[in-house]
From TrEMBL:
<dbReference type="GO" id="GO:0004252">
    <property type="term" value="F:serine-type endopeptidase activity"/>
</dbReference>
<dbReference type="InterPro" id="IPR001314">
    <property type="entry name" value="Peptidase_S1A"/>
</dbReference>
<dbReference type="InterPro" id="IPR033116">
    <property type="entry name" value="TRYPSIN_SER"/>
</dbReference>
<keyword id="KW-0812">Transmembrane</keyword>
<keyword id="KW-0720">Serine protease</keyword>
<feature type="domain" description="Peptidase S1">
    <location>
        <begin position="72"/>
        <end position="407"/>
    </location>
</feature>
<keyword id="KW-0472">Membrane</keyword>
<dbReference type="InterPro" id="IPR009003">
    <property type="entry name" value="Peptidase_S1_PA"/>
</dbReference>
<dbReference type="InterPro" id="IPR001254">
    <property type="entry name" value="Trypsin_dom"/>
</dbReference>
<dbReference type="InterPro" id="IPR043504">
    <property type="entry name" value="Peptidase_S1_PA_chymotrypsin"/>
</dbReference>
<feature type="region of interest" description="Disordered">
    <location>
        <begin position="406"/>
        <end position="444"/>
    </location>
</feature>
<protein>
    <recommendedName>
        <fullName>Peptidase S1 domain-containing protein</fullName>
    </recommendedName>
</protein>
<dbReference type="Pfam" id="PF00089">
    <property type="entry name" value="Trypsin"/>
</dbReference>
<keyword id="KW-0378">Hydrolase</keyword>
<feature type="compositionally biased region" description="Basic and acidic residues">
    <location>
        <begin position="425"/>
        <end position="444"/>
    </location>
</feature>
<dbReference type="GO" id="GO:0006508">
    <property type="term" value="P:proteolysis"/>
</dbReference>
<keyword id="KW-1133">Transmembrane helix</keyword>
Length: 444
């Protein structure tokens, strides 16, 4: 995935060169003309060298994010019953189609990446969430979006920090065997380096770098988005929910955001939980170290991992990954990023998340815990080949934002209902008074 970065502020590269060398040699009047010319030429070359070195240095800190690819390559077909919290976030650009992954954390709340909102439509009516099937083509459970809650500190258009978002559904999911919520990791300080995880999704399987972040390049109208759930096969997915609102993190910066890459998709109607649609528990242990923990990532993203074009699977893919130390060589996090909001994970060579898996879940069972928890949200990576770790938005770092956003919407809806009820009672009271007055006039 190619991202273009804007270097903030003026490019006063000359300021880096105006030192004693220039002042002592150019300003002295005792030099003859030929020496002054020689000095001028060489100083200009020196200034150019410093300019070039600065650009190279700056790009060295940022370039890893430019090679963003969020796809699952060389994964295995996944059963939705083993990943019942996985959803397909779909947007309408022509036809409704899978664009990002998402994770069920409650019956009306989906957790995803803020960059999905950045490249997606801004109208929530263009979004929907599909659940309850491994096959996109067979997905039948769809919920539409009530609101999209993007993290306040996700900075668009140049953000990579805080790449997290909550999607609020219009109607609740019905939990069952294939639709379930997931437990969130809330141990912020725990070190999970080395823990095996899994990432899942229906993203691009090729590994090319032409993909864009979901929200940024998607339609901005929420009516063009939908969420599919409840089936491992995209072609068999029948559960679709449309979007009530897209809550992109407030500090996610579009159009080239990486910071605060998180978003909540609020559905119009609740998901019906069952065997293939479930919410997932969120990790809320901010301080816990999960290095070395085995995890998994799933999705319907690109499965090719080459430069020959993308290959999006119909069947949900899943691969195992281990959480690695954030300072591991090859974990491409720019100098500008907040490492406390990131997780790095890596699996076998040739296996990685890829284009189309953005926003999908990194799910882990840490230590003696049998309950799987959502540790990360697919954000970005490098070439989809597994040679270096991929980067995920750390769920526990955003747990307060997630809860605040969901609770705020809940209070807002309650206040609206109470206001409507008061209005109805007032209207009924007025109609009652008018009826009594009419009856009294008739008696007279």
């Amino acid at each position: 995935m190619h991202n273009t970065y804007n270097i903030q502020g003026e490019d006063n590269f000359g300021d880096y060169c105006e030192g004693s060398l220039e002042k002592k040699n150019i300003e002295r009047q005792t030099f003859n003309f030929s020496i002054e010319v020689w000095l001028f030429v060489n100083i200009q070359m020196y200034r150019f060298f410093l300019f070039f070195a600065f650009v190279v240095f700056y790009m060295t800190a940022i370039v890893p994010a430019a090679d963003i690819g969020v796809k699952i390559v060389n994964g295995d077909d996944a059963d939705i019953a083993d990943n019942p919290w996985q959803v397909s976030v779909q947007m309408k650009s022509g036809d409704l189609k899978h664009e990002c992954g998402g994770v069920i954390i409650d019956n009306k709340w989906i957790l995803s990446a803020a960059h999905c909102y950045l490249f997606g439509p801004k109208r929530k009516s263009l979004w929907r969430v599909g659940a309850g099937n491994s096959m996109l083509s067979k997905m039948t459970v769809f919920h539409y979006v009530k609101a999209l809650h993007v993290h306040e500190q996700f900075q668009e258009p140049f953000g990579i920090e805080n790449d997290i978002m909550l999607i609020e559904l219009k109607t609740p999911l019905l939990f069952g065997l294939i639709i379930q919520k997931i437990k969130l990791d809330d141990d912020v300080g725990k070190n999970y380096t080395g823990v095996l995880c899994k990432v899942s999704g229906w993203g691009d399987t090729n590994g090319t770098e032409e993909a864009a972040h979901c929200y940024l390049f998607g339609p901005k109208r929420k009516s063009l988005w939908r969420v599919g759930a409840g089936n491992s096969m995209l072609s068999k997915m029948t559960v679709f929910h449309y979007v009530k609102a897209l809550h992109v993190h407030e500090q996610f910066q579009e159009p080239f955001g990486i910071e605060n890459d998180i978003m909540l998709i609020e559905l119009k109607t609740p998901l019906l939980f069952g065997s293939t649609i479930q919410k997932i528990k969120l990790d809320d242990d901010v301080g816990k170290n999960y290095t070395g923990v085995l995890c998994k990532v799933s999705g319907w993203g690109d499965t090719n991992g080459t430069e020959e074009g993308t290959t999006s699977p119909d069947h949900l893919q899943v691969i195992p990954l281990y959480i690695v130390n954030i300072n591991t060589k090859g974990c491409f996090i720019s100098a500008a990023e907040n490492r406390k909001t990131r997780i790095c994970a890596q699996g076998e060579e040739g296996k990685d998340a890829c284009q189309g898996d953005s926003g999908g879940p990194l799910v882990c069972s840490a230590g003696d815990e049998k309950t799987e928890k959502l540790m990360g949200i697919v954000s970005y990576g490098h070439n989809c080949d597994g040679h270096v770790p991929s980067v995920y938005s750390k769920v526990s770092a955003y747990i307060d934002w997630i809860r605040k956003t969901m609770n705020k919407r809940g209070r807002s809806d309650k206040q609206k209902r109470q206001k409507r009820q008061k209005g109805q009672k007032r209207q009924e009271g007025q109609e009652g008074e008018e009826g009594k007055e009419g009856q009294e006039r008739q008696k007279k």
